[in-house]
Each structure stands twice: as C-alpha cells, then as structure tokens.
Amino acid sequence: MINYIWFLILGIGTIVGLLTGRADSISKMFTSASSSTVQLLIEITGSMCLWSGVMKVAQKSGLTDKIAIVLRPILRFLFKAEGRNEKALGFIIMNITANMMGISNAATPFGIKAMEEMQKYNNKKDTASNDMVLFLVLNAACIQFVPTTILSFRAACNSKNPGEIIIPAIITTSIAALVGVITCKLLQKDF
C-alpha cells in the first residue's frame, strides 16, 4: 500500500510541476537527490566500517561476554517458558548483546536461531508464544549503548559532535525496552 502512496505523491508532484512550467526544476531535483544519496551512502559505509571494527574489538576483548553475564539472570527472570531453554537463552543473549553494542547485522542470525529454538518447544506451532513475542519486543526496542547507524548518519552529515546522541539514545532506548517488556507482561494474561 505504501508503494502506491509514494508513487501517487511522486506522480502528482511531477504532473503539477510540468503543468506549472517547472520541468527544469524537477529534473534538477531528481539529479541532485540521486547524487546526494550516493554521496551519503558512501560516507555512511565508511563510518559503518569504522564502527563495525570498534564493535569487533569490543567482542574480541570480551566486553560482549561480560554484558552477556549480566544479562543472563535478568533474562531468566523475564522468560518463563521456551526462552528458558539453555540453547534458546544463549541465542537470545547473543542477539541482545549484539544489538546493545550496535552491531545489529551480527544480531540477526542469533535472533533467527533463538526463534527456531523457541518454536521447537512452542505448543501452538501456528501462534507465537509469549516468550517469542517478548523476545521480538526486546529485539526491536533493545537498549543501544552505541547507536552506530545514527552516529554514522550524523558524521556523514558533518555534525559538529556526532557522539552527543549517545546519552539520549541510551535513555530513550531504555525507556522503550522497559515499556515494551511491561506491555508484554501485562498483555500476556489476555492472549
């Protein structure tokens, strides 16, 4: 549906531009938007490579393992059924740790494995269990210690201090994760 809406907006804008005699402005806008998009992607790619390297160092130094040690008792408390399975819990911890450190591309395989493992113990195979829903919420609203994507965008757009977003990101993602967990726990009784 959203594709139709965007196509409609672009189509109407182009037709109005042509009818009002601004065809040259439209072609300049398309050209400049395309070139600035490519330039932004190149700058972000370099920045993402830098942050991925920093996160790899954090992983190799054992920082992610230390975070996993702290997370294990918290997650054991939150998950009540399928998520308590030792194998599933290990994948959940690795997924959340990778997300917290800003390397979400490394978190995806762990998330898939966690869901597969929880599905093995799910009694209703066609319905997500409460633990599966809770994991999806934690995955989507994960606390971000290093928001690498936002840092990369801010650096690419020549921000004077790209890192000033770190503290607000930690606060907002913490609130989002807390609200998500509370909402899941409250709605578990009804579904």
Write the layout of secondary structure elements.
Elements: H1 2-19, H2 23-61, H3 63-78, H4 86-100, H5 104-120, H6 130-140, H7 148-156, H8 166-187
Helix pairs in contact: 2-7, 3-4, 4-5, 5-6, 6-8
List keywords for this structure.
single chain, about 190 residues, mainly alpha
Question: How does this model look, in words?
Answer:
It contains 8 helices and no strands. Helix 2 packs across helix 7, helix 4 (86-100) runs antiparallel to helix 5 (104-120) and helix 6 (130-140) runs antiparallel to helix 8 (166-187). The protein is mainly alpha-helical and 191 residues long. The mean pLDDT is 84. The two termini are 29 Å apart. It has one domain (40-187). It is globular and about 65 Å long. The protein has helices spanning 2-19, 23-61, 63-78, 86-100, 104-120, 130-140, 148-156, 166-187.
Mean pLDDT: 84
| Stretches with pLDDT under 50, minimum 5 residues | none
Structural class: mainly alpha
Portion in strands: under 5%
Radius of gyration: 22 Å
Element-level helix/strand string = HHHHHHHH
Instruction: Tally the structural domains.
Output: 1
Specify the overall morphology.
globular
Number of helices: 8
What's the β-strand tally? Answer: 0
* Major sheet attributes: none
How much helicity do the residues have? Answer: over 70%
The end-to-end distance, rounded to whole angstroms, is 29 Å
